[in-house]
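Students often ask why we bother encoding 3D structure as a string. The short answer is that it lets us treat folding as translation between two languages. Here is a chain of 371 residues written in the first language.
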Amino acid sequence: LAYPPEQNLVRLTEARRLVEELPGPDGVPGSDRVRLAYIHGWMGRIHQARNELSEALQHYREVLPVAQEIGDPELLGFPSNAMGQILMVQGRVAKSEPLFRQSMTALEQTGHLGYWVEALANHGAALAYMGDYAEGMSELERALARAQEMGSEAICLVYFNLAMVHLFCGDPLRAMEAARKATEAAERSGDRLFVYWGHGFQAYAEAEAGRFEAAEASMARSQAVARELGGRLLFEDWFLAVRAQMALGTGRIQEALALAERAVFIAQEMDSVAGEAIALLVWGQALSSLETPRWDEAESRLADSLRLMESMPSPPQAAHTHLVWGTVCRDRGNLAAAREHWERAAALCEACGITWQVETVRVLIETLPEV
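And here it is in the second language, the structure alphabet:
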């Protein structure tokens, strides 16, 4: 991860060619399935870094049957975790959770505790996204404590997961702090991909907190690293949506519309439910913020965003979408619909254990006149 993905892919392609020419255990050229499986695993990781998620999944799927057949916990643990990461980033959180559990079980047997910590952190994040905030945070805090105790580079990924959970659960200040620590750890490790992610999530949190000038600076640093690594990296669709949010927050409505539409296109291209849902949310807000608001189109985008969030499932993000939609309804003058969306947001937050968001929504509901 310290080198451009294209350079590593060339190296791995050459490694695969060599293994396919060399004899395997039975003396037949190309029959060393285990070594080929390891190469497929690393090729999957490179495609994952390049945001080529379908290709990455194809490579990982070449690994798992071999790992299960020979009972190799190391070969099973790494791709299970990586596949779970892809599915979670895409928004298929319910499908990612059992893969993280499989990875944790396998990696615990190998002694690769740094990677086990990563799988634990990923599993905790998946639980929080699916609505079990307390259990998810418990696993994330356990992963963080173990990473700090070991001095493991896994601490960087733990902080990324913490940043995303805080963002999705409506706590941008804590997300900013976690993203900052992730970036510092990435800078120390020399991992340029993680540096790109760190500044991007810092911008995401700052934008959510309304600190748009700081967000612009953080996103500029993230995009500089992306260009250095060749562009088209993981989270490209998410960060485009964040840029749309920043444009919206500083009154550049037409730019926000264009960026949100582009983010939806890229998310659909990479089959990312989460990225599409985040971008649709900003798109709907931008349409409602026009000098002549396009209310029906705005609510249509918000409805699509909510549908995708519910399909993941991500109740905290669904609650956030209800919160935004209620605000749009209030601004449109439809107070009954605003109350309905805000009450739904409060109920979801309460069910997830996100108490601070419940209080925020209750204050909004109290501003509405009694019917």
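Translate back mentally: Residues 346 and 361 are 6 Å apart (CA to CA). Keep this in mind for the problem set.
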